[in-house]
Amino acid sequence: MASGCCSSSNRHRDSNWDKDAEAFLNDVLKSLKTREAVEVGTKAVEYFRGIDYMKHINEHKSEILKRHECLCLRVGIDLNGEAVAIASALGQLLVQSGLIAKTDHAPLPNLDQSQIPAHLRDNSKWPRRVKIARDQTFTPDGFYAINYEAQNAYSLALLGGTIAVVLIFCMFPIWPFGAKIATWYLTVVLLTILLFCVVIRLVLFVGLWFCGRDFWFLPNLFDEDAGVIESFQPLYSYKQRDDDWLMVAVRAFAAVLTAASFYKLSETHSLSDVTEAGVGAFIDILEWGHTKLGGNSTEVTTNANLDAFLSPEERLARHWEICVKHCEFQDTEEFMEFCVNDCNCLNEMWQSRCWRACEYDVRDELKANVKLCKEGRHSSQLNPPPTAENNASPDKGDEQEMAEQEMAEQEMAEQEMAEQEMAPVNNIDMGNNEL
């Protein structure tokens, strides 16, 4: 069996591309960690470390020899030899075949790496800038750039899947409504979790920075070179700062300024206000997407058309009527009778979040009343919602009375203007009589 395999491989030795070596490299790259770097004078390349390659061969020696026995015999490798010797021989074969090229770390000259953030530094462990090495002898301490792109079934499947996903998202407008809403909710939830992690990272860093420590929760979260799993590893990083007296004074001043800002902010806002604002904003975003994607579009259009023919007072009264029905009241009169002057009822209504179906003008008034209740105001100081009776148009008798009152006021104004015009003439006559 080995001789037949070797004869098949000998036919490939005359060609420029070693198929057996390519198959071996494809097998190894499935388990090797790779990174991207800029090769000096050319373009971005993908590379792996020799030490990782040696470790992989050492851990999977028997499996590799079984799958690539023909290649090992053709090169003259002792199958019973040490793993280090086998790995070095196969690595040198890859270099000679042109599948990989040995590179060296090539940092930018005259650049102080200590002034660059830790996750962006060009270190010797995983360099960001490399150059082709003069000595192409395979060694464990080298970095090896991959000179070809494997065309295996996995790559083709990944390419096909990527094209399919792009086409599917291009057809988003014709998706079923349920799929649209599910995608929107999932997107908002993931972005909210990411924003929460960002805020937690910033709060922890600033709080410990005041104390002279550099602490990062998920330090590789925004590292563009890290993979999906690597972005969440390690969980945190901690380092003691070595600052001079000027930097210590800056940190102390910043801490005092931050504490004073939070103290002044706490006089007008509580933690519950911030929580309610965040939850309300989250719900508003979900509802906004629900409306934009087509949910209740007929109802929204109808409401907008009706509002266009109403005065501001009538529009607000109508919005209150719709809102209280969502909160299990029959109409606005029942709400005014049992709830509008009862702070306990208003607080229960606010906590039940039935107001999410209300218009924004109603939400603002309801929130203002709840805030007045929290401040201990008397129920008489609350703002009652308008009703249809308050906004009803006056009858004919009222209109006639108002017209008569306007005419009387107009006659009185004309008499006053006539008296003012006659006043200078009377003054002249009185002066002539005195003379």
CATH topology of one domain: Arc Repressor Mutant, subunit A
Low-pLDDT stretches: 6-15, 296-302, 378-382, 388-396
Order of helices and strands: HHEEHHHHEEEHHEEHHHHHHHH
Distance between the termini: 150 Å
Number of helices: 16
Main location: endoplasmic reticulum
InterPro entries: Sec62
Keywords: Endoplasmic reticulum, Membrane, Protein transport, Translocation, Transmembrane, Transmembrane helix, Transport
Family: Belongs to the SEC62 family.
Which tags fit this structure?
single chain; 435 residues; alpha+beta; Arc Repressor Mutant, subunit A; five-stranded mixed beta barrel; two-stranded antiparallel sheet; 16 helices; endoplasmic reticulum; transport; transmembrane; transmembrane helix
List the helices and strands and how they pair.
Layout: H1 2-13, H2 19-29, E1 34-39, E2 44-49, H3 50-59, H4 61-67, H5 69-75, H6 83-96, E3 100-105, E4 129-132, E5 143-146, H7 153-170, H8 177-209, E6 213-217, E7 236-240, H9 245-266, H10 271-292, H11 297-307, H12 312-326, H13 332-338, H14 343-352, H15 360-374, H16 396-434
Parallel strand pairs: 1-4
Antiparallel strand pairs: 1-2, 2-5, 3-4, 3-5, 6-7
Helix pairs in contact: 1-5, 3-6, 8-10, 14-15
Structure description:
- The protein has 435 residues and is of the alpha+beta class.
- Among the domains are: 19-112 and 120-150, Arc Repressor Mutant, subunit A (Orthogonal Bundle), CATH 1.10.10; 171-242, no CATH class; 305-381, no CATH class.
- Helix content is 58%, strand content 8%.
- Strands 1-2-5-3-4 form a 5-stranded mixed beta barrel. Strands 6-7 form a two-stranded antiparallel ribbon.
- Strand 1 (34-39) and strand 2 form a beta hairpin.
- The N and C termini lie far apart (150 Å).
- It is a multi-pass membrane protein.
